[in-house]
Write a structure and sequence with these properties.
With 289 residues, the protein is an alpha/beta fold. It has 11 helices and 7 strands. Helix content is 53%, strand content 12%. The chain has a 7-stranded parallel beta sheet, sandwiched between helices. Helix 2 crosses helix 9, helix 4 runs parallel beside helix 5 and helix 5 packs parallel to helix 7.
Length: 289
């Protein structure tokens, strides 16, 4: 009779040394993931662009039964990512899971969103993940084991209007993750991409938008969500241990993903209707499928 292993047992079987590195782990989803792994006894490299938040994140890790270290790491700096990689090799002998989580928020149409803000959001939300994969992918390959977790968003699937910069960055993260999954097949290194919907977090603190109305709408959607970062983190924990590639923590994200794959015309029609209403131009959407 086959033996069913519990979640923690499966993770321990794959990664007995329990070492995880997370960017943007001083707050929001990154902190929640750090706490979830800490509760399972993992060592957590808590990194953040803000030194105080990184230190507070490490305290939260220890309060949840884990341990580790805190470090400043700006994902726009490949040198800082290399510094963390060096410390992980020196102090821990390597790392098992790398979570490219750090990100910022933005809203605005393609025409209205300033080009300098396009550079800003793509540099952090997309190129920050690229840099993390570029630095840590080879390290995991040399180890012959490990897992990369890239945090994208439902925005990379649903493509809501007036969020072009954010959408493009998250689409890029999904595409990057698909490429890496194929490149790393057979190496012992797994890849997951996480696409959550709205949940309560402090992401809006970083938001840039030329339209205050759009910013208020986004803040309302986040603040009124019943989902918590801890719920998303637990979902990520459970599905990474199953080596799932596409991780969709919310029911609406799973619905959108399936609809877009199996009925693209209906998806485009619904998105157009929702988008025109969102932009205050009802009745001018796409033709019904």
């Amino acid at each position: 009779m086959p033996v069913t292993l519990h979640c923690a047992d499966l993770m321990a079987e794959r990664f007995p040394q329990k070492r995880i590195f997370i960017t943007g782990a001083g707050s929001g989803l990154g902190l929640a993931i750090a706490q979830r792994y800490a509760s399972a006894g993992w060592r957590v490299a808590v990194t953040d662009i803000d030194a105080e938040r990184a230190s507070a994140g490490l305290e939260a890790v220890r309060a949840n039964g884990g341990d580790g270290f805190a470090a400043v790491c700006d994902v726009r700096s490949v040198d800082q990512l290399h510094d963390v990689a060096t410390r992980l090799r020196t102090d821990w002998g390597g790392v098992d899971i790398v979570v490219n989580n750090a990100g910022v928020a933005c809203a605005g149409s393609v025409a209205d969103f300033p080009l300098e803000d396009w550079d800003w959001v793509l540099d952090i939300n997309l190129m920050g993940v690229v840099r993390g994969c570029h630095v840590f992918g080879p390290l995991l390959q040399r180890q012959g084991a490990g897992h990369i977790v890239n945090i994208a968003s439902l925005a990379g699937i649903a493509l809501a209007p007036a969020m072009a910069g954010y959408n493009v960055a998250k689409i890029g993260v999904i595409g990057l993750s698909e490429s890496m999954r194929a490149e790393l097949a057979g190496t012992g290194v797994g890849v997951s991409v996480v696409c959550p919907s709205f949940f309560r977090t402090n992401l809006m603190e970083s938001m840039r938008s030329p339209d205050q109305r759009l910013q208020h709408i986004a803040e309302k959607l986040v603040n009124e969500s019943s989902a918590r970062a801890a719920d998303v983190a637990d979902y990520v924990y459970r599905h990474v241990r199953k080596q799932r590639f596409m991780i969709l923590p919310h029911a609406d994200a799973r619905w959108f993903y399936r609809l877009k794959r199996f009925s693209p015309r209906l998806f485009a029609w619904l998105l157009s209707r929702q988008g025109q209403a969102f932009l205050g131009r009802p009745g001018k959407g796409a033709t019904a499928p």
